[in-house]
Amino acid sequence: MTDPTPHEKPPVNLQKSRTGLNRMVHALGYSFEGLRAGWKETAFRQEVMAAIVLLPLAFWLGRDWVQVALLAGSVVLLMIVELLNTGIETAIDRIGPEWHDLSKRAKDMGSAAVLLALLLCVGIWAAALWHRFGG
């Protein structure tokens, strides 16, 4: 990268100037950093531990690829929503620790999204278990 001319400013975020494979490699590194940061959250660790059991179980319980995809996908979706909720909470906390109605609303909506993802996951697994063993 050449030195900027007096009229050019260097990019604030170096990732924005990367292209091709170099950008993809760095983006993958940022993704792993995000997973490491998520691991520091108790709820995410609990969901990962559940996924270690549930993902292989999805292949045993599911009778076809659609059932396996629903079972496994609901578990992964829950972890995705948990990471997004943690990102919202972290961004709000970055702004400041003082109470604000909009901050509370953002955190509450993130929490509600996790609840809905959890209910979806539990519902899919309960239906699959009922279909396999109860009906």
TrEMBL record:
EC number: 2.7.1.107
The keyword Transferase appears for this protein: yes
Keyword field contains rRNA processing: no
Top-level taxon: Bacteria
Membrane topology note: Multi-pass membrane protein
Binding site for substrate: 23, 36-39, 43-47, 82, 111, 125-130
CDD domains: DAGK_IM
Keywords: ATP-binding, Cell inner membrane, Cell membrane, Kinase, Lipid biosynthesis, Lipid metabolism, Magnesium, Membrane, Metal-binding, Nucleotide-binding, Phospholipid biosynthesis, Phospholipid metabolism, Transferase, Transmembrane, Transmembrane helix
Catalytic activity: a 1,2-diacyl-sn-glycerol + ATP = a 1,2-diacyl-sn-glycero-3-phosphate + ADP + H(+)
Active site: E82 (proton acceptor)
Gene Ontology CC entries for this record: plasma membrane
Function: Catalyzes the ATP-dependent phosphorylation of sn-l,2-diacylglycerol (DAG) to phosphatidic acid. Involved in the recycling of diacylglycerol produced as a by-product during membrane-derived oligosaccharide (MDO) biosynthesis.
Name the record gives this protein: Diacylglycerol kinase
Species whose genome carries this gene: Hylemonella gracilis ATCC 19624
